[in-house]
Amino acid sequence: MLSHWTEKDVLINGVRLHYYRTGHGDKRPMVLIHGFSDNGLCWTPVARALEADYDVIMPDMRGHGLSARVQPDEDVDMAADVAELIRTLGLNRPIVGGHSMGAAVAYQLTVRFPELVSALFLEDPGWWLTRPMPPPLAENPMAKWVKSLGTQTLEELLAQYRKDHPTWPEELLQPMCESKKQLDPTILDVVSARMHSEEWNWRTTLQNVTHPVLLFTGNPEMGAIVTPEVVAQVRELNPHVTIVNIPDVGHLIRFDKYPAFMEALWAFLKQLPA
């Protein structure tokens, strides 16, 4: 974390939520929601680029980072958590962005609490035309990967990530690997069940969203979730959504193609109403 940023805990819906913040309430607020297994500081390069113009708040979601752990049968409503965080911090209709799981949370926040959000950007959300059923725990490759994190040291994770992602800066590698050691394995089943529920079906709500929306997509052949067929459905349901495709990247759009991501994000932000 940059030395002039702050980090605090706040009680949200009865549980402890940790967050990082670049400002002190004197700039336009922006809330950035991380993806599964990440933490708030995985937005560091983006927040550093934006902090001169925005007060950027980066929460650790439940079961992630330094926020509260979860129980197997716990009702974890991350969208409601972010809504309460916005109210508690007194943020005036922030711009909200999210990646993957965080994009789904940001979208649900906008649908359910539209008065709290001014604009929205989504980095490869879990949007499918036909939502796949989550595999049984024993067969779930994500579950096996999450379990394996407990057997690796931070140094081993850093070495592997440096090898796999040689273009990533250290300010991203460090929080990314730390977040893997902070992850509560229980959150996988809790999040998976909710994200595959009818409640999270974007196709039933997108036509009603009137906020400015930017959707980042990548290349499904490289691991991106959002397909051209989904993009076509998005255009049909809500032609006002701005769609930016970065063709030579998979699911980790801003991680692997940071300049292209930031160029598109800045263009979107500059055209928003003051």
In words, what does this structure look like?
It is a single chain. Helices cover 36% and strands 17% of the residues. The protein is of the alpha/beta class and 274 residues long. The protein has one domain: Rossmann fold. The protein has an 8-stranded mixed sheet, sandwiched between helices. Helix 8 (228-237) links the parallel strand 7 (213-217) and strand 8. The longest helix has 13 residues, at 170-182.
Content of β-strand = 15-25%
CATH architecture: 3-Layer(aba) Sandwich
Mean pLDDT: 94
> What is the total domain count?
1
Q: What is the CATH topology descriptor?
A: Rossmann fold
Neighbour order of strands in the largest sheet = 1-2-4-3-5-6-7-8
Tell me the number of helical segments per DSSP (H or I, 4 or more residues long). Answer: 10
Topology record:
Elements: E1 6-12, E2 15-21, E3 28-33, H1 44-50, E4 54-60, H2 78-89, E5 95-99, H3 101-112, E6 119-123, H4 141-149, H5 154-164, H6 170-182, H7 187-195, E7 213-217, H8 228-237, E8 242-245, H9 253-256, H10 258-270
Parallel strand pairs: 3-4, 3-5, 5-6, 6-7, 7-8
Antiparallel strand pairs: 1-2, 2-4
Helix pairs in contact: 2-3, 5-6
Which properties best describe this structure?
single chain, 274 residues, alpha/beta, Rossmann fold, eight-stranded mixed β-sheet, 8 strands, 36% helix
Short synopsis of the structure:
This protein is of the alpha/beta class and 274 residues long. The chain has helices at 44-50, 78-89, 101-112, 141-149, 154-164, 170-182, 187-195, 228-237, 253-256, 258-270, and strands at residues 6-12, 15-21, 28-33, 54-60, 95-99, 119-123, 213-217, 242-245. The chain has an eight-stranded mixed beta sheet, with helices on both faces.
